[in-house]
Design a protein that fits this description.
The complex is a heterodimer of chains A (283) and B (977).
Chain A: E1 6-8, H1 13-20, E2 27-29, E3 46-48, E4 58-60, E5 65-69, H2 74-79, H3 81-84, H4 90-98, H5 101-106, H6 109-112, H7 121-128, E6 132-136, E7 142-146, H8 147-150, E8 163-170, E9 176-182, E10 192-201, E11 204-213, E12 220-221, H9 223-229, H10 236-249, H11 260-281
Parallel strand pairs in A: 1-3, 2-3
Antiparallel strand pairs in A: 4-5, 5-8, 6-7, 6-8, 9-10, 10-11, 11-12
Helix pairs in contact in A: 4-7, 9-10, 10-11
Chain B: E1 2-7, E2 10-15, H1 22-28, E3 47-50, E4 53-56, E5 69-71, H2 84-91, H3 101-114, H4 120-127, H5 138-151, H6 166-172, H7 184-188, H8 224-228, E6 244-250, E7 256-262, H9 264-268, E8 272-276, E9 307-308, E10 314-320, H10 323-331, E11 334-339, H11 346-349, E12 373-381, H12 384-390, E13 393-401, E14 413-418, E15 424-428, H13 433-444, E16 451-454, H14 471-481, E17 485-488, H15 491-496, E18 504-512, E19 518-530, H16 536-547, E20 555-564, H17 578-596, H18 600-607, H19 617-621, H20 636-647, H21 655-658, E21 659-660, E22 663-676, E23 686-693, E24 699-703, H22 712-724, E25 731-735, H23 752-778, E26 787-789, E27 792-794, E28 800-802, H24 803-813, E29 820-826, E30 834-844, E31 850-860, H25 867-886, H26 903-906, E32 916-921, H27 944-956, H28 967-976
Parallel strand pairs in B: 1-5, 6-17, 15-16, 19-20, 24-25, 31-32
Antiparallel strand pairs in B: 1-2, 3-4, 3-5, 6-10, 7-9, 7-11, 8-10, 12-20, 13-18, 14-15, 14-17, 18-19, 21-22, 22-30, 23-24, 23-29, 26-27, 27-28, 30-31
Helix pairs in contact in B: 2-5, 3-4, 3-5, 4-5, 13-14, 16-17, 17-27, 22-23, 23-24, 25-27
Classes of the chains: A alpha+beta (283), B alpha+beta (977).
C-alpha cells in the first residue's frame, strides 16, 4: 500500500530547506500552475507548503528591479498596478490569459514556470522583460538563472533542497509591449504565442526583446531578431526580415493543433505581429 | 491530521488525510454543494471561497485550508430562506442541471463583495472558472447583474409575462386532444392547401383576450431553489454505511487479447473486497445503448471480456474500503496481453487485411464482422438517378464532423446496494432509468422486479447517460461483496472510456434546376462507431432522416456504412446524428446557392418544407416503424425573418462592415443554416404520468420522465397546473424511480415535453374531470361549462368551490374517493421543430483563427411551455454546437490513445470567451403536442457548425468542409485559394 504523502508548512527557510533537501523522502515545494496536475499524479512523497515564507510580494526595489515573490498568484499579478505599468501591461495581459479566475487565484508564479505544459504567456512575457529567477539554494544562499535559460527545461532546473524565491525584472515603465496568440478560442492555451517589448526613442528601436512559444520545443528568446532591430527604424522591410529570422529559427514539433509547416509559418506571422503591435502601442 | 478552519463562519476542526483533496474533505464534512467534475481544477464545480477568493478544491490538499476561512453555499441560507444571489439565479433561469450552480453562486458572491456595480465583463470573468455545459452562460450572467442590483437594494423587475391565448390552449385542442386523429391531409398525402381544422368546441369561459396562467410563462424551475442552495440532490450526495469504492482497470492497448490475468496480489491487499474479471462474471451479450426493447443490434458487449478493443476498455473492476486502496489494488493486477493490430480510420476498417475487431462467435447482429461492418442503412424514395438525369446541375462533396465528447460536468456515477427486502437498488446518474433496469437484469442474473433504479438530479447528460455504462459493474460488485458500492468515472475516463458523438464522413449529391429548385438528394455516410456498436444504427438513421427532410425534393436516397474502429465507442449525443447530417446538408446548400447566384437565405426559403408537406424519408428511416410523417406546424419562414433581422443579415453586403481598418488582417462574414429536427420517436416513445389530489388541493405527480437539467419536471408540472387550474407550487413532482413512477423511455430524442408532457396532460384531464364532477355535485349544478382556474372549480353561473374544498369532500366527507388519474402517451407523429441559425465570424487571414462574436437562433418549438427554460436550451445548445465547430474534436495518436484527457486540452467555451448568444422563440401551435408544444432540446445543435463554415466562406471565400475549424485548416484553405 502506498504511503500517505507528507504535508509540511514550515514557517521559515531553514525548516523548509531541511525538508526539501531530504534524500530519503522525495520532497517537493507545493506549487500549482495555471494548468494544474491532478493530485494523484503529482510527483513527490512529501509536499512543502511555502505559504508562510512570505513570498507573496510584488514590489519595485531600490535596485530598479520589479521583484515578484514565488508564491504570488497570477491574479495578484493581474491586479497589480506596478505590473500593469511595465511595458504596456504585457505581463498583466499574460497573467489574465493564462487561466480563469479560480485558477488565477490558486496558481503561483513558481507553479507557472515549473511545468512546460503550462500556458506559455507569463513565461514569454517575463522572458521578454529580461526576467531572472532567484533560487533559494539553502537558508543562506541563493543563485540566479535567466528565465530564458530556465525555460529551456523548466522542470529540471531546481535541485533537491531548492525552491524558487522570486522572479525579478528591470522596471520598464517606458517600454511598450505586446502579446499575440494563436488559439482555438480566445482564452484557449496558445498554440503559438509571441511577446515583444520595445524601447522606441526618436523613431529608433533602442532595445527590443522578443520571445516566442510554439515554434520550438520550448519558449525561446529571438536574440537574432532583437539584434536586428536594435538601433533601427522599424520599417515594414525590417519587420519582414525579423519575421524571416524567426521562421528560420523555428524548429517546431508538430501536433494536431499545428503541423510543423504551420508552426513554422506562424513563427514569422506572430513575430512580426508582436513587434508591430508593440511599436504601434508607443504611438 | 487535524486542521482548523473557519467553515461558513464557524470555527471548525476537521480530521483529514494529509494527501487527500480539500474537495474530498469538505464533502466528507457535509458540504455536498462542492462537486467533483474533474481532477485538474478546470471545470470549477468544486470551487469554494477561501479567504473570500474563488478557488478549485480538487487540486488543493486538504491541509492547505488550515488556518483559512472557507465558504460554501451551505453557509448562505437556511431552511425557508434564500440568499439574493441564489434567488436571482432561480428567477433568471440560470439553473439548468444545477451541478455547477453552487460554484457560480460563490463566484458571484466573491465578485459582488468586491464590486457592487459589476460590468458584464466582470460577470463573465467571475463565471469563467466554472464550465457550464447547459446554459451558454447567458442567464448566469444576467443573474449576476440582477443579484448585484438586489444587493444594492434596487428594485428589480418581476420575471413574468407570457402565457398563450386561452382560446388556443383550450379551444383548439379541446379537453382530450392528444392521440386524437390529426387533420385529414395527414391521411391523404401531401397538400399545402389544407389547413388545420378548428372543429373542436370552444369553452364558454375562454376568450381570445385571456392568457394561460401557467403554461407559456417563465415559471421558476421546480428544482431551482434546492440546486441553487446546493442541497444533496445528486447521485453522489449520499453516504451509505459500509459503502465500498470501486475502480476500473482499463486497457492500455487499443486492441489486445487477454492471455491471462492474475488478480491474486490485488485480492490479497488489505481492504480489498472483490476483484472481478471476465473469469468472474457471466458472459451475457448485450448492447449498452439505452433504447427501447428489443435493443437495436448489434449486441456486441459483455460486462468483462477476455479481449479489449480500445484504450480505456474494461479489464477488471475492484471494490475496496477506500478509493486509495482500490486504486492501489488496480496497480497490482497482472495482465498478460497479446497485442493485436489496430485500425482507427473507418474508411480503412472495411478493407481487406484490416484487423477484425469483433471476432467473438457469440456477438449478435453484426452484418459483416470480418470487415468490421457494424450496420448498413439504406433508404430510398422515388428514382433518384432518373431525377438526377433531369437536373440542370449536380453538386457533390464530402463533409466531416468530429468525435465530440458530451462533457457533462457530473461524471458517470452509480451507487448500488441491497435494500431491506434484498432487492438491488441502483442509484445512478442516468437518462434512461427504465431501460437501465431492464438491460441490467440479465447481466447480473436478477429478475427486473428485484431491481430498483433511482435517478436523482443529473449533472448534465446530453446523451452520454443514455447508456447503461457502469451500472452493471457496480451491481456485479455489490452482488460479490453484499455491500454498497460506489463507482464513478474520473474526468480522464470520461474521455478514454465513455461515449461520444459518432464521427462521420457525409457525402451529399444534390441535383438542382437553374431556377433554384432542388430535385434530388443522395446522401452517403461512413460512420465511425468505435469499438462497440451502441446507438450506431439509429444515429446513422437520424443523420439520414434529418439530412433528407429539410428540403423538398422529388427523389431521395440514403446509404450508410457504419464501421468499428479501435477507438472509444461513440454513442448518443444531443442531436443524435442530426448535426453530422445537417453540417453536410447546410454547407452544400450554401455552395449550391452561391454557385447558382442565389442569396443563401433566399435559396433556403425557396426550398424548405412547410405546413402540409410530406416527409417521405421518415417512412423508411423511422425507428418506430413505417409511419408517414407530415409537417403540421412550421414557423420556419418567421424564424428566418426574425433571426436575419437580429443578426443584421444585410451587413454582408456592406464592404465597410466586412473589413476592419484597425485590424487589416480581419475579415467579417455571416452565415446561415436551416434547422429541422424531430420530436420523439413516432410509434415507439411512450411515457406515463400519475396524479393524485391531496387534502389541501395540491397534487402529487409521479412521472417516469427523466429531468437531466433541462427543466422537464417543471414543464410537466406547468402542463398539469394549467390543466388543473392551480399554481405551479401546488404540484409536487417526483420523477424517475422505477419503483415509484410510471414507465417512461427516458430523456432522449427531444421527447420529454411532448411525450411525457402529453401523458401528464392526459392524466391531468382525467383528474380534472373528476374534480369538475365532484364540484358540480357540491354546488348542486351540472358540470356543463364548469372549469378550473385560480384554485377554484367555477360553474357556468359563476359560483365556485375551492380545490381544497373539493379535496376534503372527496377524501373525507361524501362518497369518499381518491381523486387521481394515470395516463400514458405515445404518438405516431413526430412534429418537427424548425429553426434558423445565424452566425457572425471574424477570420484572421494571416493565422486562420476564427472568432465568433455573435450567434442568433430563432426556433419554432410550437408553444414554449416555459419560455425561460426553452430559451435556456437554445442558448446552451448553440454554445455546445459552437464547441464542435471551433475547438472540440477528440484526436488519437497512432497507438489509439486519445490526446485530450482533460477539459483544458479538449477546450469547452468558458464564460468570458463565449460569444453574444441570442435565442428567439417563434410561437406556433403544434396540434399533436400538449398545449401546442414540440421539441426544443436538440435543434440548437444542428445549425451552428454549418453556419460557421458558411460564414467563413462569406468572410474569406474559403469553404471549410471539416469540423472543427482549427486555425491551421483555415490557413491552409487560404493558402490553397
Amino acid at each position: 500500500m502506498s504511503k500517505t504523502k507528507e504535508f509540511h508548512r514550515p514557517d521559515n527557510w531553514s525548516k523548509a530547506h531541511q525538508l526539501l533537501k531530504r534524500s530519503d523522502v522525495q520532497t517537493v515545494p507545493l506549487v500549482v500552475g495555471p494548468r494544474p496536475i491532478a493530485l494523484d499524479d503529482r510527483a513527490g512523497d512529501a509536499f512543502v507548503d511555502l505559504e508562510k515564507l512570505h513570498l507573496n510580494y510584488i514590489q519595485l526595489g531600490e535596485d530598479g528591479i520589479v521583484h515578484i515573490g514565488a508564491m504570488v498568484t497570477l491574479q495578484d499579478i493581474y491586479q497589480s498596478e506596478l505590473v500593469k505599468s511595465q511595458a504596456g501591461g504585457v505581463l498583466t495581459e499574460a497573467a489574465y490569459f493564462s487561466a480563469t479566475l479560480g485558477l488565477r487565484n490558486l496558481a503561483s508564479l513558481a507553479g507557472t514556470i515549473t511545468n512546460a505544459e503550462n500556458p506559455p504567456d507569463v513565461p514569454l512575457a517575463l522572458m521578454a522583460l529580461d526576467a531572472v529567477v532567484t533560487v533559494q539554494k539553502d537558508e543562506n544562499q541563493t543563485h540566479q538563472v535567466a528565465l530564458h535559460e530556465w525555460m529551456k527545461d523548466c522542470t529540471k532546473v531546481l535541485l533537491p533542497g531548492e525552491a524558487i524565491l522570486e522572479v525579478g525584472f528591470p522596471a520598464q515603465p517606458t517600454a511598450s509591449g505586446a502579446l499575440v496568440r494563436i488559439n482555438r478560442t480566445p482564452r484557449d492555451k496558445a498554440i503559438l504565442a509571441a511577446v515583444a517589448v520595445l524601447y522606441i526613442d526618436n523613431g529608433l528601436c533602442s532595445k527590443a526583446s522578443v520571445s516566442l512559444a510554439g515554434a520550438n520545443p520550448a519558449p525561446v528568446r529571438l536574440l537574432e531578431v532583437e539584434t536586428l532591430l536594435k538601433g533601427k527604424s522599424l520599417t515594414s522591410e525590417l519587420l519582414a526580415q525579423a519575421a524571416q529570422l524567426a521562421e528560420n529559427q523555428a524548429q517546431p514539433l508538430g501536433d494536431y493543433l499545428g503541423s510543423v509547416v504551420y508552426r513554422t509559418a506562424m513563427a514569422s506571422v506572430l513575430t512580426k505581429r508582436a513587434i508591430s503591435q508593440a511599436m504601434n502601442a508607443t504611438k | 491530521m487535524n486542521i482548523h478552519l473557519k467553515l461558513n463562519g464557524k470555527d471548525t476542526d476537521l480530521v483529514v488525510i494529509q494527501d487527500e483533496s480539500l474537495l474530498t474533505a469538505l464533502r466528507r464534512a457535509g458540504m455536498w454543494s462542492v462537486k467533483h467534475g474533474c481532477e485538474t481544477g478546470e471545470c470549477g464545480a468544486c470551487s469554494v471561497l477561501m479567504d473570500g477568493k474563488l478557488v478549485p478544491t480538487c487540486v488543493m490538499l486538504a491541509p492547505q485550508a488550515d488556518g483559512h476561512a472557507i465558504e460554501t453555499v451551505e453557509g448562505m441560507s437556511e431552511i425557508n430562506t434564500i440568499h439574493p444571489i441564489q434567488k436571482a439565479f432561480t428567477e433568471m433561469g440560470a439553473v439548468q442541471c444545477g451541478f455547477c450552480t453552487p460554484a457560480m453562486v460563490l463566484a458571484t458572491k466573491a465578485l459582488i463583495n468586491k464590486e457592487m456595480y459589476p460590468t458584464l465583463e466582470d460577470a463573465r470573468d467571475a463565471l469563467s472558472s466554472t464550465i457550464c455545459r447547459c446554459t451558454g452562460y447567458v442567464k448566469p450572467v444576467e443573474a449576476i447583474m440582477r443579484a448585484a442590483a438586489m444587493l444594492r437594494g434596487e428594485e428589480v423587475p418581476p420575471i413574468d409575462g407570457g402565457g398563450i391565448p386561452m382560446d388556443i390552449a383550450f379551444g383548439l385542442t379541446g379537453e382530450s386532444d392528444l392521440g386524437r386523429d390529426l387533420p385529414d391531409f395527414v391521411k391523404g398525402g401531401s397538400g399545402s392547401e389544407v389547413k388545420i381544422k378548428k372543429d373542436v368546441k370552444i369553452a364558454p369561459w375562454v376568450t381570445p383576450e385571456s392568457q394561460t396562467d401557467v403554461v407559456g410563462r417563465p415559471e421558476i424551475k421546480v428544482d431551482a431553489v434546492k440546486l441553487a442552495k446546493g442541497k444533496p440532490a445528486f447521485t453522489d450526495d449520499i453516504n451509505l454505511p459500509g459503502m465500498l469504492y470501486a475502480e476500473m482497470l482499463t486497457s492500455p492497448h487499443a486492441h489486445a487479447r487477454i492471455r491471462n490475468i492474475d488478480t491474486s496480489k490485488a485480492k490479497a491487499l488489505q481492504g480489498v473486497h472483490a476483484v472481478l474479471t471476465y473469469k468472474d462474471v457471466p458472459r451475457v451479450i448485450y448492447a449498452s445503448g439505452g433504447q427501447s426493447w428489443p435493443n437495436p443490434k448489434p449486441w456486441d458487449q459483455v460486462s468483462l471480456d477476455n479481449k479489449v478493443r480500445f484504450v480505456g476498455d474494461r479489464v477488471a473492476v475492484v471494490a475496496a474500503e477506500t478509493p486509495e486502496i482500490a486504486r492501489e489494488a488496480i496497480k497490482l493486477i497482472d495482465v498478460d496481453y497479446e497485442v493485436l493490430p489496430i485500425v482507427l480510420d473507418p474508411r480503412e476498417a472495411g478493407k481487406p487485411g484490416a484487423p477484425v475487431i469483433h471476432d467473438e462467435p457469440d456477438a449478435v447482429g453484426i452484418p459483416d464482422a470480418s470487415h468490421n461492418l457494424v450496420n448498413v442503412v439504406d433508404a430510398v424514395w422515388n428514382d433518384v438517378d432518373k431525377v438526377f438525369a433531369e437536373c440542370d446541375r449536380i453538386f457533390e462533396n464530402t463533409y466531416y464532423t468530429p468525435k465530440q465528447q458530451q462533457g457533462h460536468i457530473e461524471p458517470h456515477i452509480c451507487i448500488t446496494y441491497w435494500d431491506e427486502d434484498e432487492r438491488l437498488v441502483v442509484r445512478t446518474s442516468t437518462q434512461v432509468p427504465f431501460h437501465a433496469r431492464r438491460m441490467l437484469a440479465p447481466l447480473i442474473g436478477l429478475p427486473i422486479k428485484r431491481i430498483r433504479v433511482i435517478k436523482p438530479r443529473i449533472g448534465g447528460g446530453f446523451g452520454g447517460k443514455q447508456e447503461m455504462l457502469i451500472e452493471d459493474l457496480a451491481a456485479h460488485l455489490t452482488l460479490a461483496t453484499k455491500r454498497p458500492v460506489r463507482l464513478e468515472y474520473t474526468r480522464e475516463q470520461e474521455f478514454t472510456s465513455s461515449r461520444s458523438r459518432h464521427p462521420m464522413y457525409v457525402t451529399f449529391k444534390i441535383g438542382v434546376m437553374n431556377d433554384g429548385t432542388i430535385r434530388a438528394l443522395d446522401m452517403n455516410v461512413i460512420s465511425d462507431t468505435g469499438a462497440y456498436g451502441s446507438h450506431s444504427l439509429t444515429v446513422a438513421s437520424v443523420s439520414g432522416l434529418r439530412g433528407l427532410s429539410t428540403y423538398k425534393a422529388d427523389a431521395l436516397r440514403f446509404h450508410a456504412d457504419i464501421y468499428y474502429t479501435n477507438k472509444a465507442p461513440a454513442g448518443a449525443f444531443r442531436g443524435y446524428g442530426a448535426p453530422q447530417g445537417m453540417f453536410g446538408l447546410e454547407v452544400i446548400i450554401d455552395e449550391i446557392a452561391h454557385s447558382l447566384g442565389f442569396d443563401p437565405l433566399e435559396f433556403r426559403r425557396r426550398n424548405a418544407v412547410d405546413v402540409g408537406d410530406h416527409i417521405p424519408i421518415s417512412t423508411a428511416l423511422g425507428e418506430g416503424g413505417t409511419i408517414e410523417q407530415y409537417v403540421l406546424s412550421c414557423g420556419l419562414q418567421e424564424c428566418f425573418d426574425k433571426a436575419a433581422k437580429s443578426i443584421q443579415w444585410e451587413r454582408r453586403n456592406d464592404p465597410k462592415w466586412r473589413v476592419d481598418p484597425e485590424r487589416p488582417n480581419i475579415r467579417r462574414g455571416l452565415g446561415v443554416a436551416t434547422c429541422m429536427h424531430g420530436t420523439a420517436i413516432p410509434g415507439l416513445d411512450m411515457g406515463g404520468a400519475s396524479i393524485k389530489m391531496n387534502d389541501d388541493g395540491s397534487f402529487n405527480v409521479q412521472v417516469g420522465a427523466t429531468d437531466l437539467g433541462t427543466g422537464s419536471d417543471t414543464v410537466i408540472a406547468q402542463i398539469i397546473a394549467e390543466t388543473l387550474g392551480c399554481r405551479l407550487e401546488d404540484i409536487i413532482i417526483y420523477s424517475s424511480d422505477t419503483d415509484m413512477t410510471p414507465f417512461d423511455v427516458g430523456a432522449y430524442a427531444s421527447s420529454t415535453t411532448f411525450i411525457s408532457g402529453g401523458s401528464a396532460k392526459k392524466a391531468a384531464e382525467i383528474v380534472r374531470r373528476q374534480i369538475i364532477d365532484r364540484a358540480a355535485k357540491m354546488l348542486e349544478t351540472t358540470s356543463e361549462g364548469m372549469y378550473l382556474r385560480h384554485r377554484q372549480a367555477i360553474a357556468a353561473d359563476g359560483r365556485s368551490v375551492s380545490l381544497e374544498a373539493v379535496a376534503l369532500n372527496s377524501l373525507h366527507t361524501v362518497d369518499q374517493q381518491q381523486i387521481m388519474g394515470t395516463a400514458s402517451f405515445m404518438s405516431n407523429y413526430a412534429p418537427p421543430p424548425f429553426g434558423a441559425q445565424f452566425v457572425e465570424v471574424e477570420v484572421d487571414t494571416e493565422t486562420g483563427m476564427v472568432r465568433v462574436p455573435r450567434m442568433v437562433m430563432a426556433v419554432d418549438c410550437g408553444t414554449a411551455i416555459n419560455p425561460m427554460t426553452a430559451s435556456g436550451q437554445i442558448e446552451g445548445g448553440q454554445l455546445q454546437a459552437l464547441g464542435m465547430a471551433i475547438s472540440e474534436g477528440m484526436e488519437y495518436d497512432t497507438e489509439g490513445n486519445v490526446l485530450q484527457k482533460r477539459f483544458g486540452d479538449y477546450r469547452i467555451y468558458e464564460a468570458d470567451e463565449a460569444p453574444e448568444i441570442t435565442a428567439i422563440l417563434v410561437p406556433t401551435y403544434e396540434p399533436s403536442g400538449p398545449y401546442g408544444a414540440k421539441a426544443v432540446a436538440e435543434i440548437p445543435m444542428d445549425g451552428v457548425g454549418p453556419a460557421v463554415s458558411n460564414a467563413i466562406f462569406d468572410a474569406i471565400g474559403v469553404r471549410l468542409r471539416e469540423l472543427p475549424v482549427l486555425p491551421e485548416k483555415v490557413w491552409k484553405g487560404i493558402q490553397e485559394k
